Amino acid sequence: MNLQDTCAAPGCSQPPAAVLDVRLLCREHFFQDCYTQMDTIMRCLRDPAFQETGEEPVRQFLTECTRQAADLAGSTSPLDNLERARVLDILLRASEIGGRLRRSARRHARFSIHLLSERPGHSWKETTETIMVSQHGAAVRCGNAVQTGAVLRLVCAGTGREAPVRVVWQQSRTDGAREIGIEFLRDVNFWGMDWGPPDAETDSGPALTTRAN
Fold first, then answer.
1. How far is CA 152 from the centre of its chain?
2. How would residue 43 be classed by pLDDT, with cut points 50, 70 and 90?
3. pLDDT range class, residue 125, cuts 50, 70, 90
């Protein structure tokens, strides 16, 4: 990809770092555009007519958004803490919209969990913790190598509850650690949390931190 000298956002002189809707954007304007478009999608998804006609363009946008966010996470230019948090939030939000096409609250919450791979020739068990959770999935730390699309078994250490999950994205940190996004393969309230009505959360950034055992 041949990058232009500056971001395509009006008045911005920063170098481009990502592309969205055929526009080359700096990191800040990429984040802003992702949040703006995702918020617009969530408002539109409340209209049944939109769900019948607008699903494919939404999926195309989510694919592009996820790919660009993952590229930013793995770029040679390190992200600061706020940028990393935004990338993580965008990846999880894109996963939620793409998997459910409806609004789901996200909360920073630390649950102690076990991840198990039962694939023949590549079985392992790892005790780790969540970074952010939603009604339909979570972002978790993972020390084992996994592939996007892989199916794992998730066990909550505090409750013993189990559920099959699919890896929907992954990113490597500058310290060598790995974070992955997982989605539940069946619709259950795995975390036992009160999520409220689907449209209760309207902010465009990470929700308030919740600590859990």
1. 17
2. confident
3. very high
